[in-house]
Amino acid sequence: MNDVTVRNNVKMIGEGVRTIIFAHGFGCDQSMWKFITPSFEKKFRVILFDYVGSGNSDLNAYTKDKYHTLRGYMQDVLDIIESYNLKNVIFIGHSISSMIGMLASIERPDYFDKLIMIGPSPCYLNEAGSYVGGFEKSDIIELLDMMEMNFAGWASFMAPLAMNNPEFPMLSKELERSFISTDPVIAREFAEVTFFSDHREDLAKATVPTLILQCSDDSIVPLEVGEYLHRHLQNSTFRLMEAKGHYPHISHPEETISLIKEYLQCN
Length: 267
Known about the structure:
It comes from Paenibacillus radicis (ex Xue et al. 2023). This is Alpha/beta hydrolase. InterPro entries: AB_hydrolase_1, AB_hydrolase_fold. It is a single chain. This protein is an alpha/beta fold. Helices cover 40% and strands 16% of the residues. A 7-stranded mixed beta sheet has the order 1-3-2-4-5-6-7, with helices on both faces.
């Protein structure tokens, strides 16, 4: 196994010619795709990985210097593609991974065939009168402080809010377990990088065809954000999901699979 495989706990499954990379969001790991990947293994080569600090990644590979912006995470995605000599990649990113994948596609558009963004946001902060991101700066600072003071408390508060499927409490519990399993120091730093990132100016540079899957009633990413992305991303397709919450690949896997397959034109 090479260094990239170990660093990012890369797993390859499936038997197709085309390659899908599934990239998890903040506070999660590759296990979050477990309801989705079985539907693609027959027709695609599927790549799963953990960002450094998540899942079974190599925590020793984490440096604040590298990962203080999304570009450090972007470089890891490019490293995986280059390490496995992948071509025409379909990149499916959840939440902040949507922007990480987009940045990678701007850097190396020749590596990518399509981007699929699930619950994406180029900027999480509101700008009075000009942009709805969903959060005030004070909200984010409060969340970061809570992560620092009581990480388990933050996880139990945040999970049901983000999952937003109260009729299925086990889903929130599973997300809470995922949050708690991450390294608290790295998780807080990743949260800071995520929630204070602003990649609106990069949207105009993206050229790879993109599907935007916007969840309805998403407490992390308001509808206005998805619509903003669609307006500013050339070559984009926008689909508003029936799925509520921020994790449709967990709460509504059938709808998620169906929309991805429809976009990729595969059965």
